[in-house]
Write a structure and sequence with these properties.
With 262 residues, the chain is an alpha+beta fold. The protein contains 6 helices and 12 strands. The chain has helices at residues 2-12, 87-94, 159-171, 179-184, 186-200, 222-228, and strands at residues 22-31, 39-46, 49-56, 59-66, 71-76, 81-86, 98-116, 119-133, 141-154, 204-217, 231-242, 257-261. A 12-stranded mixed β-sheet has the order 7-8-9-10-11-1-2-3-4-5-6-12. Strand 3 (49-56) and strand 4 (59-66) form a beta hairpin. Helix 3 (159-171) runs antiparallel to helix 5.
Length: 262
């Protein structure tokens, strides 16, 4: 769960005008749901593919998103095997639990500016809500709310490329977190995806985010889920580079065993 949340955190810094491959280095952290220490990570974007490497302790957790191939790969530096998810099938299954038409999202400039990593960033207030049936149960509905400030460097190099990636992915119903966690909390996964879409449309790269996740709803587990909410996630973008990336960076290493997941 902790690695899945860190992977989600990294995504906050990715929702980002000339076509190029993009590399972002970031620091993530948060409070709640086991989040305490910061983690460093690097994210790579090439066309409709993205790779996120997150360093937790002595292990690197890697997730590769291949939108055109409709595959998500997940593996770590300690094992020579990768989990493979059919994201077309997974998106269809997740859609049964989430009322996408219920989504409400806004990203509004708040009139503030500040310097972050030597860049002029504009402040925005973000709010996204989504309704879903918890773990597929129509008797237990949840509303997930994401809110908080986002500091965006407008027209940063690589912005258009990252925006295109997220648009392609969200249009196909993708999520950007561990599918196993998304099965248990589909509303949160879809709300995060909607958030990425909103930020991608801003025309810049978020250099700093501070997002709170809150949950409310009905049914016997609503109280428990409300306590599981109130998670704070932070992301700081330390650097952004534009330059060619090798194709093999976006596939599991040769010789890895591939485990098909559902």
């Amino acid at each position: 769960m902790k690695r899945a949340l860190f992977a989600t955190l990294l995504g906050l810094g990715l929702a980002l005008p000339a076509s190029a491959d993009v590399t972002l280095k970031q620091t993530t952290g948060g409070k709640g749901m086991g989040l305490s220490a910061n983690a460093s990570g690097t994210t790579y974007i090439k066309g409709n593919k993205m790779r996120a490497d997150i360093v937790v302790g002595d292990k690197t957790q890697t997730t590769i998103f291949d939108v055109d191939g409709q595959k998500m790969y997940s593996f770590d530096s300690k094992k020579k095997e990768a989990d493979v998810w059919d994201m077309a099938a997974f998106a269809a299954e997740l859609a049964k639990s989430v009322d996408v038409s219920s989504a409400k999202a806004s990203l509004k400039a708040n009139g503030q500016t500040k310097q972050i990593a030597g860049k002029a960033a504009t402040g925005y207030d973000m709010e996204v809500s989504m309704q879903s049936a918890m773990a597929g149960s129509k008797d237990m509905t949840m509303t997930v709310m994401l809110s908080g400030p986002v500091w965006i460097v407008k027209n940063a190099p690589g912005s258009a490329d990252v925006a295109r990636f997220y648009k392609a992915a969200v249009d196909k119903g993708w999520i950007f977190s561990d599918p196993r966690g998304a099965k248990a909390q589909p509303g949160q996964a879809k709300a995060m995806a909607e958030m990425y879409k909103q930020i991608a449309e801003s025309g810049g790269i978020p250099y700093e985010t501070d997002v709170q996740i809150k949950m409310s709803g009905s049914g016997p587990l609503a109280g428990l889920m409300a306590k599981m909410g109130n998670v704070t996630m932070t992301t700081t973008t330390d650097s952004v580079e534009v330059g060619a990336l090798a194709d093999d960076l976006f596939t599991p290493p040769a010789g890895y065993k591939l485990n098909q997941k559902k």
